[in-house]
Write a structure and sequence with these properties.
By secondary structure, the protein is α+β, with helices and mostly antiparallel strands. The chain contains three helices and five strands.
Length: 84
Amino acid sequence: MFRELDAEAVLLDLESGVYFGLDAVGTRVWTLLLEHGTPEQVYARMLEEYDVSPEILREDVLRLVGELAGKGLVVADSAGHAAT
């Protein structure tokens, strides 16, 4: 379950009852994952939107997606797309 509140968001794993909070940038990563499906596509889109070092952005996007996957909030399908 996803709920956006004032540019931030809360994700809830209904099975475990665990909440995961996202700041504004994390919320943008989440919404782009929903729209585009892969961390690489999220990275490319965010690179256009934010004034940030490409290396730092790639690391941050991959770290967040890894954390979300580690909590079972996203999984990769056979084509490498994130499923929420």
